[in-house]
């Protein structure tokens, strides 16, 4: 009997799933594509205020400037089954990390971490929420999520095993 290779899976989580986590989802998709890898990637929010909505227009514009299409994404809320479906659930800030740790069922397989903890020198740092600020805040958010996803990909997708 041949072992089927495990497809790594990542879920990115922010508040409403319309700004930070969709950008992180797209950044990680690009990292996996660059490496020619099949990876399951999704995003969600801790709340359901925007369920079914496309990402914020400023997030979509930011994605377009970086050659990515956010128009096909739709907001959803984190579900209990996500903790079994995904290997890695990545919070975009410490409030999301705390919420996820509260929601995480005992014994679930998911590794719940903060995105920028994967970037050298950034431990404990939040990805800023650009929602209430000017449009250039979305570029700052993009730079942070892109850096975080590059670090995640280097750690988990570049020939290493998908375990902690």
Automatic annotation (TrEMBL):
This is protein-tyrosine-phosphatase. Residues 8-155 form the Phosphotyrosine protein phosphatase I domain. CDD domains: LMWPTP. Keywords: Hydrolase, Protein phosphatase. It comes from the Bacteria. Belongs to the low molecular weight phosphotyrosine protein phosphatase family. It comes from Bombella mellum. InterPro entries: LMW_PTPase, Ptyr_pPase, Ptyr_pPase_sf, Tyr_phospatase_low_mol_wt. It is an enzyme of class 3 (hydrolase). Pfam families: LMWPc. SUPFAM superfamilies: Phosphotyrosine protein phosphatases I. The keyword Hydrolase applies. Its EC number is 3.1.3.48.
């Amino acid at each position: 009997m041949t072992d089927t290779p495990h497809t790594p899976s990542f879920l990115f989580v922010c508040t409403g799933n319309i700004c930070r986590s969709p950008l992180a989802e797209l950044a990680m998709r690009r990292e996996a594509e660059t490496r020619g890898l099949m990876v399951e990637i999704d995003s969600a929010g801790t709340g359901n205020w925007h369920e079914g909505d496309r990402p914020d227009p400023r997030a979509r514009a930011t994605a377009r400037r970086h050659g990515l299409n956010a128009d096909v994404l739709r907001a959803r809320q984190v579900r209990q089954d996500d903790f079994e479906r995904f290997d890695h659930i990545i919070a975009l800030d410490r409030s999301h990390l705390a919420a996820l740790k509260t929601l995480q069922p005992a014994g679930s397989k998911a590794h719940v971490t903060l995105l920028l903890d994967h970037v050298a020198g950034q431990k404990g740092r939040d990805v800023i929420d650009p929602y209430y600020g000017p449009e250039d805040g979305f570029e700052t958010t993009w730079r942070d999520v892109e850096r975080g996803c590059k670090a995640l990909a280097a750690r988990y997708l570049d020939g290493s095993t998908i375990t902690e």
